[in-house]
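Batch queue: ligand-bound targets. Current item pairs a single chain with nicotinamide-adenine-dinucleotide. No template structures supplied; prediction is de novo from sequence plus SMILES. Inputs echoed for audit trail.
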Amino acid sequence: MKTAVVTGAAQGVGLATAMRLAEQGYRVWLTDAQALDEVVNRLRQTGLDVQGVRGDVSSEDFVKELAATVQASHGAADVLVNNAGISLIAAAEETTAEQWQRVLAVNLLGPFLLCKYFGIQMLAQRSGSIVNVASVAGLRGVIHRSAYNASKHGLIGLTRTLAGEWGGRGIRVNAVCPGWIKTDMDIADQGSGAYSDSDIINRVPMARFARAEDVASAIAFLADSERNGFINGVTLPVDGGWTADASWDSLRTKTR
Ligand SMILES: NC(=O)c1ccc[n+]([C@@H]2O[C@H](COP(=O)([O-])OP(=O)(O)OC[C@H]3O[C@@H](n4cnc5c(N)ncnc54)[C@H](O)[C@@H]3O)[C@@H](O)[C@H]2O)c1
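Prediction returned. Tokens below.
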């Protein structure tokens, strides 16, 4: 049985991904800053092989201990999904250094630490697959998200660099770049009045938000070394065509 580790797995994309991988036969370790007992019990009741560990991905001590626990239980992890992330909507000139550092710590330092400590195990077994959850905000600028966008651009840089550094030793490293998804992150962001559903729907050629399951499917595909053993270093948009289409909204909506 293969082992997968999914961060930020208490809800949203992380939970959908953990469920998808567990349904595909992986033993899945869910980790999150929030408590996971309820989620893990619910998944176990449906027969899935899951474990939960609570902790902060930006803490090196936590990540080191998590990697050691997984390895001691089942040997090296086969799949790592770096999904945990936080959002920040603020004008650049009003973003504090502390806010910037926290976003970079969770969204970029955390994935680096997880890649490092699980990568050490994967390199020793000369196989493994890492999928980083970036964003369309890692491929394009989006106003009022300087820290978040920098973190996601950085995550794509990390993905490409590790794909090169570790590809020759059997580790593939890829990223997915979702468009806007209806999760708690979006609900909180919209709560600040920054945008509305129609802003997103009008911007997307496929005229809807992404679903957590759309992203989970793409992650599960990239994770699977049997279905795609030669895809390495890609940044796969899961955005309904957002990044492909530079049209203005009225032109796009006229074609519907
Ligand atoms: N929602 C969107 O529109 C959207 C779009 C593109 C990319 N993304 C990315 O997808 C990923 C998942 O987002 P989501 O929409 O499911 O968000 P979400 O807020 O619903 O879930 C994020 C999870 O990460 C956990 N988390 C936050 N900080 C953590 C930390 N320091 N350590 C461990 N866990 C932590 C949270 O507790 C939460 O369970 C994120 O990386 C996000 O940036 C989201």
